[in-house]
Amino acid sequence: MHFFKSCLACLILLLFSCQNENNPTQQKSWPDYGGGPSNSKYFVQNQITKENVSQLEVAWTYEIGDEKAYQNNPVIVDNVMYVYAKNNSLVALDLTTGKEIWIHASLNGIARRGFTYWENSDRSDQRIIFTLNNTMQAIDAQTGKSILSFGKNGIVDLRQGLGRDPNKILRTASLTPGKIYKDIIVIGSSPGEAYISPPGHIRAYNVITGEMLWIFHTIPQPGEEGYDTWPTEAYKYAGGVNCWSEITIDEKTGIAYIPLGSPTYDYYGADRIGSNLFGNCLIALDVNTGKKIWHYQTVHHDLWDYDLASAPQLITVKKDGKSIDAVAIACKQGFLFVFNRATGEPVWPIEERPVPASNMPGEQAWPTQPFSTLPAFNRQTVTEDDISDIFFTEKELADWKARIKSAKKGLFTPPDTTEVVAMPGAVGGANWGNTAANPEKGYVYVLSQDYPSIYKLERRPPPLPISYRARVEQQQAIQRGRISFAERCQSCHGKDLSGTPLAPSLLAIGNKLEPNFLRQTILYGVGRMPPIQHIEEDEILNILAFLKDKSTGDSAPKKIEELKIDGPVVAAGGAPGEDETVSLAVYDQAGDMYPSNVEVPSQRYYTGYGLGFPYLLNPPWSYITAYDLNTGKIMWRNPLGEDPHALKLKGAKNTGVPEGSQRNGMIVTSNGIVFSTVTNGKIYAYDADNGNILWTGETPLGIATLPSMYEYDGRVYLVVNATTPKVPGWNISEEEKQAISSKAPQKGAYIVFSLPKK
After folding, report:
1. How many CA atoms lie within 13 A of 289 on its CB side?
2. Contact indicator for 360, 385 with CB cutoff of 8 Å
3. Residue 92 domain-assigned?
4. Closest CA to 629 of 445, 447, 449
5. Fewer C-beta within 10 Å: the chain N or C terminus?
């Protein structure tokens, strides 16, 4: 079954949507998270103009069919749009009718922010590559079915090859999809932020076979560059230094620009004394070989969780009479750094400046940090005069002013056992999805938010939330039960619980079993089943948890006819064996024990992320900032959205939206429009040259991901994923809460805008 245009028409279309940054070609589709390998979110079109953008209207919608909040960036190739919907299913939609072509159901644990698309030269092989829990998998884009020739029986186990016990790795896959160059996919990871987390090494795989082609050790091993920037043998226990966000690839040169995060533990680094390469580095790797070309470290020995989280932007800059192919990276700390794409030399100067020392036992904060000389796009300091009075009583306001006044503060002030206010905080500045560019003009656009963190180091780790602890304990019980079942029950009841000539299927009764009945059956036997007398109570309960999960749990393999999903379901669940890659590890900031043969501090310190105060500062709380990197100046800077509760209480306008930019993105068009989404369900069209708002669209639910754009049958369309509940505001009245809760829940949908048909 083939859902695409003829081969001749396909050849006329672009291969993917990706444009050469120095000579953009007409883009028709959106085949990748961020629009293509360059991640510029740049779309060449002349149909929607500054003059007619206000006429945009809803062309069609697709309701998701559940109440989940999806964060994926819709992918569009030819006449098909791929989205998440219907209880974590991957759905292919026909652009001409909006109808479902196929549904691959129940992909529970699929990468939250989306997937990527690949096709071979003659388009006979078209694939969607994605991560699911601890695996990478592929689905046939035409049929919707798993490709079992990819990896081992359809699965690449991402826990393998990291130099750690795979069974102790809770998670590895990044929530953001990898990037494809030719037949190679480059992927990052999201290993967690605890002590002894796994390392975030960068890996590349063949998209056809799933074979790992190379690995770049982000935490250097003996004999590798950067090994001396860590304690001896730190690679055995240090973790993080991972790319959990957005990779950019220059198709012309085959270079991947990869933003890396912090080493773990994020806020206390006495076990990782040194500058910690390649933590917080922008690294340029040859995609074909994995060899490093250059790197730049934006934070030395990070103690503030200042991961590089937004997509590097490939631009051409005209400076000092020269045309420079450059790459720009926006940071959580509010800086924009710009480098020569080939050499890594700064295009605009960067200064190493002294920063405060640490008072923590065993800690050695790095004495200097890099400061970009370009103007910052975020506030980087906070005083008691910055505290907002919009939502506070007079007493609360006075208490907060006193608290901030007494706290330590200032950019790069290390966390301490007394309160430290970090500005920006852990989710301040630029985050994933928050950058876009006009590559030809040398303009970069940044979404950001002013959101401080308040840190206080303590000897005890923060407790796991009860709800999360319960889920973790349940998953532990299920996985232990799987092992016990394999050892004691599988030979008779079958690996998939479907039964054998020796014993019946347990699939139909697993969810009906009670502890006492199962205990009696196991200990004393029944019928042809012999008793199992040497078994502990905990093991019986674990087997029960496993049986119930296989009967009713999300990870249970289900027959298509048993799924309560309307539409053309062609498959359910991931490739076989995916559940076996789930480890018994538990995420806990305390982490595991250090290896016995290394010297480490006797005491660890911990802090939470210090969040919970999005309205603490005077507005604006979020912005969109436009840089002209030919001149090194900000062209314009406008608040991103408006908070209706601040307007209602204090008449505050142009406030921006608290947490408004953290999970949003932009599209920049070649004819000078910037489309930006906001979490409160608004879409704004800005004049790319001066920041004037040209149009505001609204959706029933909020938007917490990137928009997409495509051209089909002569019309240009803008797509937003409006599936996130709108945040009702902070400190709202009980009456408002009751009014909100009494309303029927809005239905999430993918909403497609276009100009009216002529």
Report:
1. 6
2. no
3. yes
4. 445
5. C
DSSP secondary structure string, 361-411? TT----SEEEEESSPPSS-----GGGB--SS--HHHHHHHHHHHHHSEEST
In a domain, 595, yes or no: no
The verdict on 561 and 627 lying in the same domain is no
The pTM score is: 0.86
For residue 632, which amino acid is it?
Answer: G
Cβ neighbours of residue 292 under 8 Å, at least 6 residues apart? 216, 225, 283, 284, 285
DSSP summary character for residue 562: G
650 pLDDT tier (thresholds 50, 70, 90):
confident
Q: How confident is the model at residue 472 (pLDDT cuts 50, 70, 90)?
A: low
DSSP 31: -
H-helix or E-strand spanning residue 751: strand 749-754
| Residue 377 covered by a domain | yes
| DSSP codes, 475-496 | HHHHHHHHHHHHHHTHHHH-TT
Q: How confident is the model at residue 545 (pLDDT cuts 50, 70, 90)?
A: confident
Residues 454 and 325 in one domain: yes
Whether 479 and 418 share a structural domain: no
Q: Same domain for 390 and 480?
A: no
The pLDDT of residue 289 is above 70:
yes
**The last residue of a domain, from among 534, 564, 581:** 581
Phi-psi category of residue 692: left, alpha or beta, with phi > 0 → left and psi -120 to 50 → alpha:
beta
Q: How many residues does the chain have?
A: 758
Give the range of the structural domain holding residue 130, as residue numbers without chain letter: 8-461+607-754
Which of 537, 563, 581 is where one domain is finished? 581
Distance CA 397, CA 286 (A): 53
Range 302-325 average pLDDT: 97
Which token pair is 684?
């704004």
Q: What is the pLDDT of residue 21?
A: 38
Pair (433, 510) in one structural domain:
no
User: Measuring CA to CA, which residue among 100, 72, 190, 78 is closest to residue 569?
Assistant: 100
Q: How many domains does the chain have?
A: 2
Instruction: Calculate the average pLDDT of the chain.
Output: 88
The DSSP element (H or E) to which 734 belongs, if any, is helix 734-742
Does one domain contain both 557 and 646? no
Residue 434 inside a domain? The answer is yes
Are residues 561 and 625 located together in one domain of the fold? no
pLDDT, residue 387, reads 96
- Domain at 503, CATH number: 1.10.760.10
Q: What is the rounded distance in angstroms from the CA atom of residue 748 to the CA atom of residue 126?
A: 29
All residues at 6 or more sequence positions from 405 whose CB lies less than 8 Å from its CB, including other chains: 383, 384
Tell me the one-letter amino acid at 722.
A
H helix and E strand count, the chain: 8, 40
Q: Which pLDDT score, from 0 to 100, does residue 102 have?
A: 98
Judged by average pLDDT, the poorest of 437-451, 574-588, 695-709 is 574-588
Q: Which helix (H) or strand (E) holds 735?
A: helix 734-742
Name the CA dihedral angle for 78, 84, 87, 92, rounded to a multiple of 10 degrees. Answer: 0
What percent of the chain stands above pLDDT 70? 86
Would you say residue 660 has pLDDT above 80? Answer: no
Q: For residues 707 and 741, state if they share a domain.
A: yes
| Start-to-end CA span in the chain (Å) | 33
